[in-house]
């Protein structure tokens, strides 16, 4: 439904925020055991622990592809992020979720290097995360509307980029330190 100004309203099934709110998500225990399947909206409203993947896209030369999140995103709207990714679907493996999220958000396929699990908890959020690294120069396509801008940032300038821009706290706290400790992308061959 459109309002008088022609804007989509929350009851519009084409509205990406409404579609995201209706996504089914696993509410999980600290050990990853599924407690229940709920909507993403319930996960956000009740700060339920859930599984999410993070994919850092790096060029062979060592630059990180950062992206600006759409203003309609339910967390950190309009912020810059250093990792693509999102919530795992029920029953989905970590690697399958990583490949799906990379395709959905960046329109890219690449081999995923497993960088391992982490947990992140802060007021209003509890995540069991898994980090992947994808070394590629694309091609990329940002067709789903979740990404509104991108830029390559040399790894040695990434700390300054994060300090100068709004970045999701989970990425800044959990992902950035790992990126800064990585070996050169050319060593992954």
Verbal overview:
There is one protein chain. The chain is α+β, with helices and mostly antiparallel strands. It has a domain at 49-177: Nucleoside Triphosphate Pyrophosphohydrolase, CATH 3.90.79.10. The protein contains five helices and nine strands; from the N terminus they run αββαββββαβββαα. The strands form three sheets. It has a four-stranded mixed beta sheet with strand order 6-3-8-7, with helices on both faces. It has a three-stranded antiparallel beta sheet with strand order 5-4-9, covered by helices on one side. The chain has a two-stranded antiparallel ribbon with strand order 1-2. It is globular and about 45 Å long. The termini are far apart. Residues 1-10 have low confidence and may be disordered.
Compact overview of the structure:
Helix content is 24%, strand content 33%. With 189 residues, it is of the alpha+beta class.
